[in-house]
Design goal:
The protein has 6 helices and no strands. The protein is mostly helical. α2 packs antiparallel against α3 and α3 runs antiparallel to α4. It has one domain. The N terminus is likely disordered. The protein is globular.
Length: 190
């Protein structure tokens, strides 16, 4: 086996191992389209009763990689609804999750471009900067529970095989890199 192939296989094993470890810790369940989307049991407000939220796209929201964002706010409608149901009375936590959802959705779209061979080589790094800010924001808002909330976002956003493949491709593009913490004291403001 040549050294390039060994390196690619090694990187793939690291990525898959990382995902499996994360899923083992956070309980994410990729590709389970019948999951409860991480909704907390005490958040049973029907979507129709939540003013200002878009309608639930249902299965149509899974038909494309980008999903449905009917209000054009940069967050898929199904994710917006799941976040609101998770924290109906806490706008700070919702805002932190929205910031994370936007970064993760960007990562999925960049991963799809990587798979298609159309990605700008710098794009994964631009998205990783945004992702770093969203992670720092979640740590600031959720503290010890930031990892659990990150798992909730991954499980909810990466809910089809195509999205999973794209997310893996995005992470693979960053696998040989090292990143520091964002250089800001206010990661939630960005």
């Amino acid at each position: 086996m040549n050294s390039t192939l060994k390196k690619v296989l090694g990187i793939g094993a690291v990525i898959i191992g990382s995902i499996l470890i994360t899923c083992g810790i956070t309980g994410c369940n990729f590709f389970d389209d019948d999951s409860d989307s991480g909704v907390q049991p005490n958040s049973s407000t029907p979507t129709a009763e939540i003013p200002g939220l878009p309608p639930d796209p249902g299965e149509a929201g899974k038909a494309t990689l980008a999903g449905i964002d009917s209000d054009n706010d940069g967050v898929r409608d199904d994710i917006e609804i799941a976040i609101y149901k998770r924290y109906p009375n806490d706008s700070l936590k919702r805002d932190a999750l929205i910031q994370g959802a936007k970064a993760l959705q960007d990562a999925i779209l960049v991963g799809a471009a990587i798979i298609a061979g159309t990605a700008n080589p710098d794009e994964p790094f631009r998205v990783s900067d945004r992702d770093g800010l969203s992670v720092a924001c979640m740590v600031q808002v959720f503290g010890f529970y930031a990892s659990e909330e990150s798992g909730f976002l991954e499980k909810t956003l990466v809910n089809t095989r195509t999205r999973g493949d794209a997310y893996i491709a995005y992470n693979g593009a960053l696998s040989d890199q090292s990143f520091g913490s964002p250089d800001t004291d206010t990661p939630c403001d960005n």
